[in-house]
């Protein structure tokens, strides 16, 4: 009858986190109650695919060997929304009609106009992420002709990169 908030107290017992909730004192014989528990658990990144809860009813009044116990296994599902943002600096580039590529040159200006592409990968949460792979395909050839001369690739924020074999082939 009606709904009441339970008084629950978290504590550690034998290295295990325990939450004790008082359901009623005294409770009449044959009473039936329904309890909905909402638990907030953090730090599940390394828990694997599921987490197990052991639920048990205990009576303070009369010790009983039939203290009802049940195990509930809940799957752990990580949720994170990733967002990729990109910019080119300058945003627009026009190659002059008088410009010609100088084969074998080691001067940067003989390979075209410098354009920097910056990409940012953002985790919008709510969970943390690890082991993310971002594959970026850049068209550097048009047939047998160089379309974009890929000069360098850099990262920030503890990321690892594998470089494309066409990166700075003339060692400019």
TrEMBL record:
<dbReference type="GO" id="GO:0098609">
    <property type="term" value="P:cell-cell adhesion"/>
</dbReference>
<dbReference type="GO" id="GO:0008305">
    <property type="term" value="C:integrin complex"/>
</dbReference>
<dbReference type="Pfam" id="PF20806">
    <property type="entry name" value="Integrin_A_Ig_3"/>
</dbReference>
<dbReference type="Pfam" id="PF20805">
    <property type="entry name" value="Integrin_A_Ig_2"/>
</dbReference>
<dbReference type="GO" id="GO:0001525">
    <property type="term" value="P:angiogenesis"/>
</dbReference>
<dbReference type="InterPro" id="IPR048285">
    <property type="entry name" value="Integrin_alpha_Ig-like_2"/>
</dbReference>
<dbReference type="GO" id="GO:0009897">
    <property type="term" value="C:external side of plasma membrane"/>
</dbReference>
<dbReference type="GO" id="GO:0007160">
    <property type="term" value="P:cell-matrix adhesion"/>
</dbReference>
<feature type="domain" description="Integrin alpha second immunoglobulin-like">
    <location>
        <begin position="3"/>
        <end position="76"/>
    </location>
</feature>
<keyword id="KW-0472">Membrane</keyword>
<dbReference type="GO" id="GO:0007229">
    <property type="term" value="P:integrin-mediated signaling pathway"/>
</dbReference>
<dbReference type="GO" id="GO:0005178">
    <property type="term" value="F:integrin binding"/>
</dbReference>
<dbReference type="GO" id="GO:0033627">
    <property type="term" value="P:cell adhesion mediated by integrin"/>
</dbReference>
<protein>
    <submittedName>
        <fullName>ITA2B protein</fullName>
    </submittedName>
</protein>
<keyword id="KW-0325">Glycoprotein</keyword>
<keyword id="KW-0401">Integrin</keyword>
<feature type="domain" description="Integrin alpha third immunoglobulin-like">
    <location>
        <begin position="83"/>
        <end position="171"/>
    </location>
</feature>
<dbReference type="InterPro" id="IPR032695">
    <property type="entry name" value="Integrin_dom_sf"/>
</dbReference>
<dbReference type="InterPro" id="IPR048286">
    <property type="entry name" value="Integrin_alpha_Ig-like_3"/>
</dbReference>
